[in-house]
Amino acid sequence: MKILVINAGSSSCKYQLFNMDDQSVLCSGVVERIGQPMGKLSHKIAPGTDKEEKIVVERPFPTHVEGMEDVISLLLDSEKGVIQDKSEISAIGHRVLHGGEAITDPVLIDEKVKEIIRDCFPLGPLHNPANLMGIDVAEKLFPGVPNVGVFDTEFGMTLAPEAYLYPLPYSLYEELRIRRYGFHGTSHKYIAKATAAFLGKPLSELNSITMHLGNGSSMSAVQNGKCIDTSMGLTPLEGLMMGTRCGSIDPAIVPFMMEKKGMTPQEADTVLNKQSGLLGICGTSDMRDVHANIEKGDEKAALAFKMLTRSIKKVLGSYFFLLGNVDSIVFTAGIGENDEFVREAVCEGLEPFGIKVDKKENHTRKPGARVISTPDSRIPVLIIPTNEELEIATTTMRIVEESQK
């Protein structure tokens, strides 16, 4: 079975085509700058293998339709295509940000599901409209092919009321569904399953803390295979300090800032989401630049690094108290998998709690899942690469097969 995975953004569309017989990626790519004067399609054949080949197409893509039409042409190309006919694609899996409380599991997409995605536009104004657009494009270009929605909020739907409710008037939850939803759920779910497999224990018995650290970052506490707490909230702004997002702050800062600076709600939102975090403190949101600037003696870069790792360590500590028994601490995503300095700083000083990182192993870069703690560490510290696209593809295949029984 071949599964196409689509992650549509407002001006971009990422995709991967999987052969689920061996879970190999036949091709992957991204259409960028959709709707701008000049667009770009970057297409990789057999990515990550010694046969990898890249094709770049630059031309205007007025809408997502034109971009995906070019993708289909590359898939079917007589010389470099990976399929001979569109009918070889059995299903299409879509990453969708927000399903609210109405969708708690992956689903076959129909008009009712699309309406729920539309109803969640206020909760995911940047992502849900683009996700729905991707679904509409797929339905137009692949008529009759089943589409499956895999929702970022799904993993957090196992939170108990005391975990997902905010201490606000209960009427705000009843009227506006203001609650913690959590995001990066597809990644956290994949990592939970991968961690259980790595440790050789059933998922239903796994207690683990996952740190998905990238430009956007979140953490989750997993108890018996289920999410019992997660750092992001109503939106992806809450929680850890991130690349351009402030994370959790005193909420009174927002009206204070608006009053003193004469800001509109939208302007304040822009500050919190796009001008804060690492960028706001030291002028860059890229951890590679932060490290380079620290080497040059940049005090603000050093401060930003300390603030970032401190915010991670604070949540890590709280999750230990929530879980009680912890089987593993897992680093994943761009920073989590590749930044040994962040990992070292987060775990520094945890030796009295039985958590010991092997500095040499931590500073050695290797592919795949691995242990970076010492043999006598009471709790193993792991690096497990995330693969949200594979999780979406696997889920899509399962949903389609179940629907055909």
Automatic annotation (TrEMBL):
Q: Say where the protein is mainly found.
A: cytoplasm
State the reactions this protein catalyses.
acetate + ATP = acetyl phosphate + ADP
Give its E.C. classification number: 2.7.2.1
Q: Where does Mg(2+) bind?
A: 7, 388
Instruction: Note the CDD domains from the entry.
Output: ASKHA_NBD_AcK_PK
Record site: Transition state stabilizer? 184, 245
**Enzyme category, top tier:** transferase
Identify which residues the record assigns to the active site: 152 (proton donor/acceptor)
Identify one Gene Ontology CC term for this UniProt entry.
Answer: cytoplasm
Metal-binding keyword on record: yes
Tell me the compartments it is located in: Cytoplasm
Q: How does it assemble?
A: Homodimer.
Q: What is this protein called?
A: Acetate kinase
Q: Which organism is it from?
A: Bilophila wadsworthia (strain 3_1_6)
Lineage, opening ranks: Bacteria, Pseudomonadati, Thermodesulfobacteriota, Desulfovibrionia, Desulfovibrionales
